Amino acid sequence: MIYGGPSTQLTTRQRKRECREVFAARMAMPQYLSWSSTPITFNREDHPDKVVAPGVYPLVVDPIIVST
Question: pTM for this structure?
Answer without folding.
Answer: 0.30
